[in-house]
TrEMBL record:
UniProt keyword Cytoplasm present: yes
Cited NCBIfam families: PRK04976.1
Gene3D superfamilies named among the record's database cross-references: 1.20.120.1820, HscB, C-terminal domain
Protein name per its UniProtKB record: Chaperone protein TorD
GO biological process: protein complex oligomerization; protein folding
Pfam families listed in its UniProt record: Nitrate_red_del (PF02613)
Localization per Swiss-Prot or TrEMBL: Cytoplasm
Lineage of producing organism: Bacteria, Pseudomonadati, Pseudomonadota, Gammaproteobacteria, Vibrionales
UniProt xrefs under PANTHER family: CHAPERONE PROTEIN TORD, CHAPERONE PROTEIN YCDY
Length: 215
């Protein structure tokens, strides 16, 4: 049981880390951590899994390359804005509605479904993050909360039900659009930091789906 709890905490930590990465521009303090020993250790641990080795190596290379930019924080912030706060033609907007919605507009059916799903699990969106519910950062934060919720259950049946909910969520609310999002990041992110992050996220979600499906 303790191993189950510890492993779930590690999974939630990864989802929450990725959520923060796609939620806002990195600050100088964030970048100091990215170039420090703890991040190196964290990524090294992820890279020990065969399915994650290549995307982890690519992301580590992007971090190293970023460190050599003249004004790293400002340039990465510009990359973030150009990708995630622009238009579908010039960027990779981080909303499920832009990839699997019917209208090509924000707040399409995926946002409504996400809002309903959060309400059904009584998981609230952070008030300070005023975005449609299908924003990638919100979906990843929700997944982290769903994982920890499984740890808090009293019976094996309750825990298993929440693990199945996680599997369904990855399959129907993340992996239904993340491959398209990662491709758009690759196409529009000329420097490559966020493209590498998106590829790592996609690889991790695919691996996590295998774990939850018992493959």
């Amino acid at each position: 049981m303790q191993e189950f709890i510890a492993f779930n905490e590690q999974r939630a930590e990864i989802y929450w880390w990725m959520s923060s990465l796609f939620a806002r521009e990195l600050s100088d303090a964030d970048l100091h951590e990215y170039h420090g020993g703890e991040m190196y250790t964290f990524l090294s641990g992820l890279g020990m899994t065969e399915e994650l080795k290549a995307p982890v190596d690519a992301f580590r290379a992007a971090i190293k390359k970023s460190h050599d930019r003249n004004d790293e924080q400002l340039e990465l912030a510009a990359d973030f804005c150009g990708l995630f706060l622009s238009t579908p033609k010039s960027g990779a907007l981080p909303y499920a509605s832009m990839y699997v919605g019917k209208t090509g507009l924000l707040n399409d059916k995926p946002a409504q479904e996400m809002h309903e799903l959060m309400a059904s699990f009584d998981i609230a969106q952070r008030k300070e993050f005023n975005e449609p519910a299908d924003h990638l950062a919100i979906e990843l934060d929700f997944m982290g909360n769903l994982i920890i919720m499984a740890n808090q259950q009293q019976t094996e049946e309750q825990r298993e039900a929440l693990m199945q909910s996680q599997l369904s969520f990855i399959d129907t609310m993340l992996l239904n659009w993340l491959p398209l999002f990662a491709k758009e990041c690759q196409r529009h992110d000329h420097f490559g930091f966020y493209a590498a992050a998106a590829n790592l996220l996609l690889a991790f979600c695919m691996l996590d789906k295998k774990f939850l499906a018992g493959e």
